[in-house]
Write a structure and sequence with these properties.
The protein contains ten helices and 16 strands. Helix content is about 40%, strand content about 15%. It is α+β, with helices and mostly antiparallel strands. β3 and β4 form a beta hairpin. One of its GO terms (molecular function) is protein serine/threonine kinase activity.
């Protein structure tokens, strides 16, 4: 007898037999996480999907499975990966999502990826992800805190549109200050965890803002959250601070871009990332402010496509464009923040 599902969803419920058929007997693995393996699937109407199968060895897997399934039923946004359906038959549990053809952001930023994201694409991805997170924080009542925002959890579709995924650790909070002290296993991933969580287990919307700042620094520098050096592991914030202080944007921006970016939008992106990562949560902006600033940053880059500014040898060559003078002021402000 099949155990009845205790998840009440409006989405299509699939039997385990259907899941086996959709994945062609779990033929093609396209990803893997703490929850379990992710397989490529094809529905009867030829739609491609991603099928996340709960591993029997997954820690707290049942809890995260239900959290993710129930949350994705009530949240809908163009920058959140959408749930197509689910399977909940006893020990056999699976979540079926829209297929994101271009995989995760971490892969696109890795040194092994030959298709380098250009500067404009990176800014657009940042805007997309900010839209998704801002919706969770301010468009949902009560607000939803993702708790595990990182580049592997930002997926890209066939049009390179970014969507936030992996909501297994997310929480909806309706307390006065929208915060929560975690008493279960640690949420999040090393390198992305906000200082207040590491110190006390306390999480709130500003904890996600910190994680977003780390993601933004990864987009800017091309480096991972934890940089592995021969003798030590360096957090990306500790790596970038002294370079910001030196004022040389060329040494901050991903070298794979080969200088193909505009200095003023680059400094503004760095400034936004910096604003997200102060140790004190109260000093970080709301995601609505971060989103607005990133939109301005992207607009600046678009307008500079028609300007004469360019980067040469780490220093900026300027025309009479007043926006460029603004970037010099940003550089000074950021250096002051880093001290």
């Amino acid at each position: 007898m099949v155990k009845e599902s205790n998840i009440k969803l409006n989405n299509h419920q699939y039997s385990y037999r259907e899941v086996v058929a959709i994945t062609n007997n779990f033929k093609t693995i396209i990803g893997e996480g703490g929850f379990g393996k992710v397989y490529l699937g094809i529905l009867t109407d030829e739609t491609q999907v991603a099928v996340k199968l709960l591993s029997s060895s997954s820690k707290q897997g049942n809890k995260e499975f239900r959290a993710e399934a129930q949350l994705l039923m009530i949240v809908h946004h163009k920058n959140l990966v959408s749930l197509v359906g689910y399977c909940d038959e006893g020990e056999n549990k699976a979540l079926i999502y829209e297929y994101m053809a271009n995989g995760d952001l971490r892969h696109h930023l890795s040194v092994t990826n030959t298709n380098v994201l250009n500067w404009k694409e990176r800014l657009q991805i940042a805007v997309d992800a900010a839209h998704g997170l801002e919706y969770l924080h301010n468009g949902c009542k009560p607000p939803i805190i993702h708790r595990d925002l990182k580049t592997p959890n930002i997926l890209l579709n066939e049009n390179m549109q970014a969507k936030i995924a992996d909501f297994g650790l997310s929480r909806a909070f309706s307390t006065e200050n929208d915060s929560h002290v975690s008493t279960d296993h640690p949420a999040g991933t090393r390198g992305y965890l906000a200082p207040e969580f590491q110190a006390s287990g306390n999480v709130n919307r500003k904890s996600d803002v910190y994680s977003f700042g780390i993601v933004l620094f990864e987009l800017i520098t091309g480096r991972p959250a934890i940089i592995i050096e021969p003798k030590e592991h360096i957090h990306i914030v500790d790596w970038v601070y002294p370079i910001i202080e030196s004022g040389d944007i060329q040494n901050i921006i991903d070298p794979k871009l080969q200088g193909e970016f505009h200095t003023n939008s680059a400094w503004k992106a760095v400034e936004i990332a910096m604003s997200c990562v102060p140790t004190a949560a109260i000093q970080r902006p709301d995601m609505s402010e971060v989103l607005a600033e990133l939109k301005e940053c992207l607009a600046l880059e678009m307008s500079n496509g028609r300007s004469e500014s360019r980067v040469t040898g780490g220093n900026m060559t300027t025309s009479s464009n007043p926006l460029i003078m603004t970037s010099l002021e940003l550089q000074s402000d950021i250096a002051a923040l880093a001290r």
